[in-house]
Write a structure and sequence with these properties.
Blueprint: H1 6-23, E1 29-34, E2 37-46, E3 57-63, E4 74-77, H2 108-118, H3 123-126, H4 136-146, H5 158-161, H6 200-207, H7 211-219, H8 223-244
Antiparallel strand pairs: 1-2, 2-3, 3-4
Transmembrane segments: 223-241
Domain UBC core: 9-155
Region (Disordered): 170-191
């Protein structure tokens, strides 16, 4: 068997990484090679939390050289974001701009996670070519728009390519339009009222005396009537006692 050349090694490595990403997906990104060119990947990346990019979804290309993994990839952002120029190779330490820093043990996942970490860093101090510095308000606006941005090649929105995790809401907050009248919380946010008959004490206080309690009160003579009966008993006993003696 003839020894594998670097190109064959690259194909094996790329397919291995593609299987690993498919078998171990992340809620932070989704990436896969193109069907017609495994040396080009498309990735959708979630914006870093607690930053102006939070809630945003960003689509970019990962271009792998024929000598991969012995040479680093190139990254090109496609979704407008206010941090990196679109359709421009980004200059970061693990890209083709800095081959001397690349390690063959790294891979596509390394590049994706690294790019996410560069989002909140400030301007050209962190990134050279391909860096832009938009106002925070504009970055937040682009983050909201990025969710419905559609890749011309993938033909799907970023949200379809990387859905929000179940039970979470990653979309940037949108200020609600004020309405007239009293402010009421949404129905789903209102806690259910406690059942007024759940507690015996509440039953006694709210529902009043039960039938047994009412009947008991009716059968029990008043205090004055008890006193009068006792007086009459004593008087009759006194009269009888005198007649006997």
């Amino acid at each position: 068997m003839a020894p594998l050349n670097k190109n064959n090694s690259a194909v094996k490595r790329i397919m291995q990484e593609a299987r690993e990403l498919a078998n171990d997906p992340s809620p932070e990104y989704s990436a896969a090679p193109l069907e017609d060119d495994i040396f080009e990947w498309h990735c959708t990346l979630r914006g870093p939390a607690e930053s102006e990019f939070e809630g945003g979804l960003y689509h970019f290309r990962i271009l792998l050289p024929a000598e991969y993994p012995f040479r680093p990839p190139s990254l090109m952002m496609l979704t407008p974001n206010g941090r990196f120029e679109t359709d421009t190779k980004i200059c970061i330490s693990f890209t083709s701009y800095h081959e001397e820093l690349w390690q063959p043990a790294w891979g596509v996942r390394t590049a994706i996670i690294g790019l996410q970490g560069f989002f909140p860093l400030k301007g050209k101090a962190a990134v050279g070519i391909g860096s832009i510095e938009y106002p925070i308000s504009e970055r937040k606006r682009l983050a909201a728009l990025s969710r419905t941005w559609t890749c011309p090649h993938c033909r799907e929105t970023n949200l379809a390519l990387l859905p929000d995790p179940a039970g979470t809401e990653q979309a940037p907050a949108v200020e609600a339009t004020p309405v007239s009248g009293p402010s009421n919380p949404p129905a789903e946010a209102v806690a259910p009222a406690p059942n007024p008959i759940a507690s015996p004490a509440v039953i006694d206080r709210v529902a009043g005396p039960t039938r047994a309690q009412t009947a008991s009160k009716r059968q029990r003579p008043p205090i004055l009537l008890d006193t009068a009966i006792c007086f009459l008993v004593v008087l009759v006993c006194g009269i009888v006692f005198r007649r006997m003696f």
